[in-house]
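pinging the channel bc i need a second pair of eyes. not urgent but kinda urgent?? the chain im working w is below, pasted from the shared doc
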Amino acid sequence: MADMLLIAHEPLRAAMRTVVKGCGSSDAEADAVANNLVEANLTGHDSHGIGMLPRYVGAVREGGLKVNAHVSTVLDAGALLRLDGHAGFGQVVGGEAMALGIERARALGCAIVALGNAHHLGRIGAWAEMAVAAGMISLHFVNVLARPIVAPFGGAKAGFGTNPFTAGVPLKGRPPMILDFATSTIAQGKTRVAFNKGEPVPEGCLIDGDGRATTDPRWTVQPPWGALLPFGQHKGSGLAVLCELLGGALAAGLVGQGEDGSRQRVLNGMLSVIIDPRALHGSDGWEAAADEFVAGLLQIKPREGHERVLLAGDPERRTRAERLARGLPVDATTWQQIVDAAASVGVEAAALRRTAGLA
């Protein structure tokens, strides 16, 4: 098992900003990317956190990720927007797309935003959190334009990406419900984290290059390739295909099936549906019914081995509080990969360690 470092969140943000700026990003872009990645680690989703940065740096150096890019509008049909992310940092163009969608939903009651050609959008839950902070409900269907990594139900090799689905619902007087999951049994990044730590993944998550069950994460980290399995067998596979059709073919005009994995870039397409519930029900017409339902769920007696009934988003909020207080665990392998990537853009290892509070 790899050694672990424990790094406070603010020094870690500063260190990640330094690396992103080394790629040529503006201060604002470096802030957006670093904050998004560290927030993913804070919520416990290390798969979408700072461990992605070496791949981002590689994509910049290859030319597949464009620094300081912003969204442009391809189609404006009132409540329907089609946007091009120009292969810019997803942390920037995703935020710009959501801001436009929220503004339009506030004016018209709802909006459908089709974002294509965005580099890795990070943890999609962050965009649902942005919507609920504005009092909006949001749904997100996302595809992944990279080497396919998930086998369809019944298939012996990969046919699509981890294709996340996300929804956010604000709840009056309570934390919002943030439902955010890959349509694979586990996110691809979790296999990278397990590989770096020298740990197996749970049974039922992976198949090897011959389609046989395995718990060795190397099959999704290095060739020859195996594949992740969809969650819930046919149900996860069906939802993944839906995300490819809506987030990929419809929103972006691009699907990931033809990618060979030779490039570092990871492009996403995202179809977002944003609804202002007040436009449907007035100021608070729906809130009482929602609260009655949620309150009833939370009063159900927990079964053995569980402290209480949880809503989607509760585990992330708990982990965030713990890691804010204690620091963020980073395995030594991942840290070294970040150090190596930083060196490739002119950031010295000793300086990076000092910034992260490790010197």
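so Residues 178 and 313 are 5 Å apart (CA to CA). and The first helix runs from residue 9 to 22. — does that match what u expected or am i reading it wrong
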